[in-house]
Amino acid sequence: MYPRSKATSLKSRYNNDVPKNYENMAVVVALLLSLMSILMVTESTSAIFSSSDKNYMDKLCNSVIVLDGEKKPGSSFSSTSNSKYKPNTNCTLTFKTAQTTQRIITTIEKIDIADSNGATCGDYIKIYDGKFQGPILNKNLAEQCGSSTSSHVSISNVVVFHFFSNGAKEATGFKASVALHFPLVQACPQDLGVYLCTNKNCISKLLKCDGHNHCGDNSDEKICSIGKK
Ligand SMILES: [Ca+2]
Q1: Is 129 exposed, middle or buried (0-12, 13-18, 19+ CB in 10 A)?
Q2: What are the sequence ranges of the domains in the chain?
Q3: Which CATH architecture has domain 55-178?
Q4: What confidence score (pLDDT) does residue 119 get?
Q5: Ligand 1 centre from 130 Cα, in Å?
Q6: Ligand 1 ion local residues (Cβ < 5 A)
Q7: Which of the residues in the chain have pLDDT under 50?
Q8: How many Å apart are CA 166 and CA 203, to the nearest integer?
Q9: Cβ neighbours for 156, distance < 8 A, ≥ 6 positions apart
Q10: How many Å lie between the centroid of ligand 1 and the Cα of residue 176?
Q11: pLDDT score at 226
Q12: Measured in angstroms, how far is the CA atom of residue 220 from the centroid of ligand 1?
């Protein structure tokens, strides 16, 4: 038998240890739960953005896609999933910002549209600012067919891509990206979840290092950690 003082001390240690163990377990469970939630968020975020590689304009004709700072701050798409676009295509794809103060950066990342003859494009991609057949964002005709890439920032909060091909020559088409630009976010600080491009466009940090030129000058894809594009 232990002396009373020692027994009391053991008992008191036992009594103290039990809640501590539960406390520790609770901390571990809380950590596991928060880790799971982080993993789930990461997974759903990457799911949103990896799916952008599967966006094809010929499957999205007449769609309207809303860009939202938290859920969908940008996207990218190709003209077609086929090796060449089809003749006689007449297709529009509209992007709108969730908030009217936001603007849209449009970037033609790659372009191979056949059937151009100097300033005349048989097939073309036109980008309208505001509404279909409104002001043209990519005004330079050379940027609407042929092989010149380009980037523009909208004046309104709506852009409409219009892809047209006639019945003659076809080619591989184009790859484009769009990104929300936040002109009202002062200095575009990273701690607000945004990224200041070299060309001063302010995009969501989520669009950095995902393999698509969202800034327009590709600065969001230039300094990336190993293993990322
Ligand atoms: Ca990007």
Answers
A1: buried
A2: 1-54, 55-178
A3: Sandwich (2.60)
A4: 66
A5: 24
A6: 207, 210, 212, 214, 220
A7: 1-20, 31-52, 228-229
A8: 36
A9: 103, 129, 130
A10: 11
A11: 61
A12: 5
